[in-house]
Specification:
The protein is α/β, with parallel strands linked by helices and about 375 residues long. It contains 13 helices and seven strands. Strands 5-4-3-6-7 form a five-stranded mixed sheet, sandwiched between helices. Strand 6 (about 260-265), helix 10 and strand 7 form a beta-alpha-beta unit. Helix 2 (about 20-30) packs across helix 4 (about 45-60). The longest helix has 21 residues, at about 350-370.
């Protein structure tokens, strides 16, 4: 492509910068024989602008039409000052003697000045400095430390079942994996004024005041590989409601005639321990109960389904009665089963090994520091993966 063709293409480009397009048009007008004064009038720019870009094009060609590098304002804070601000943000305020539970950018700016790190600095500058390393000390995330001494073994068994493996042997076509649990305290909150549908420049509006109509529990059994849900509602959780769910599932096909049906459950009181496993096996000999580790309900895939129910069915809550709550949950269950696909479970055995290694490093660091002033009880030592 010739130089002129490239310039003409740039002159009518919709993606090139407006400044570059204006400079290209100045050069093209010059090539047509227009004087500098005429070009300035045609393009609506100053005469000196025309002279500048004609001269740069004459000296450097098309490359001369680009902006030259600019030095910008010299940095106000040295790398050492920036590093000290980041180091401060990575400390808990209590460790530095500041009576705060977490830092804000304003607090960090004030502490930076008090410590003499910088004579003056704004909160917005602190945020920009921390953004370089994605530091957000004003946010926090809660977590539960692993206490189950058999965590690795129990978690590995659950992860194997998600991969259709049990005790190292692949599952057959007539074997199924069910993930089950209860979602408690779903309330029937009847709003004192009707919920308003979204409108032009207005989101859905839900009245803050409500009358309580009671609460119920939703028990669900999710087939991990078929993405089918069976559930029912009960006034409260317990052995009887859970066994009613088991009865509903295990007396229907394909589970009634299955060789084995593995029930993955957490350690809730409705299905805790060996007694629950024996009770299930006594009622249905082809059913096998598998417990997740203690404090590891996140390994139970039905919790993902419950999060969908929370977002799409329960919240925002505006029900006139518990019957309406139950009807909505039942209708959603049918709707979900029509189009659902298995979840893309991504936590693997490799991730489990990495988790156990991180826990071991954390415990070693915790024991070496031996903090004083607070009696942190050590967690049970997890088994090796």
């Amino acid at each position: 492509m010739s130089e002129r063709r490239r310039l003409e293409k740039l002159a009518y480009s919709r993606t090139a910068g407006i400044g570059l397009v204006a400079r290209v048009r100045i050069v093209l007008d010059a090539a047509e024989g227009y004087s500098n004064n005429a070009i300035a009038v045609r393009q609506g720019v100053h005469l000196d602008t025309v002279r500048t870009w004609r001269g740069r094009y004459a000296d450097h060609g098309q490359h001369g039409l680009k902006d030259r590098p600019r030095s910008g304002r010299p940095p106000r804070f040295t790398p050492v000052q920036r590093a000290e601000i980041k180091a401060l943000a990575c400390q808990l305020p209590a460790e530095t003697g500041v009576p705060l539970s977490r830092w804000s950018s304003t607090d960090l700016a004030a502490e930076t000045i008090d410590r003499g790190v910088a004579a003056t600095i704004s909160a917005s500058t602190v945020r920009r400095i921390l953004a370089q390393d994605a530091l957000k000390p004003w946010q926090h995330q809660s977590w539960v430390f692993i206490r189950d001494p058999d965590f690795a073994a129990k978690a590995a068994r659950v992860l194997d079942l998600y991969q259709q493996i049990f005790d190292g042997v692949p599952l057959g076509e007539n074997e199924y994996v069910i993930s089950s649990d209860e979602k408690t305290s779903i309330q029937a909150r009847c709003r004192c004024h009707p919920t308003l549908a979204p409108g032009t420049s207005r989101m859905m509006r839900v009245n803050h005041e409500y009358d309580r109509g009671g609460s119920l529990a939703y028990l669900a059994a999710y087939d991990v590989h078929r993405a089918q849900v069976a559930g029912h509602c009960a006034v409260k959780t317990g052995i009887v409601p859970f066994m009613a769910l088991v009865e509903k599932v295990m007396t229907s096909q394909p589970y009634a005639s299955a060789k084995r049906v593995f029930w993955v459950v957490d350690n809730g009181s409705s299905h805790r321990g060996k007694a629950a496993a024996d009770r299930l096996a006594a009622r249905f000999p082809n059913a096998v109960m598998i417990h997740t580790p203690v404090h590891a309900s996140w390994l139970n895939q039905v919790e993902i389904f419950f999060s969908i129910v929370q977002r799409k069915v329960v919240s925002p809550n505006d029900f006139t009665s518990l019957d309406q709550v139950e009807d909505r949950l039942t209708a959603f269950e049918r709707r979900y089963n029509q189009t659902a696909r298995p979840f893309e479970w991504k936590f693997t055995q490799t991730d489990l090994e990495d988790l156990m290694a991180r826990i071991e490093r954390h415990e070693q660091k915790e024991h070496s520091q031996q903090p004083t002033g607070c009696d942190h009880q050590p967690a049970a030592q997890p088994a090796a993966a």
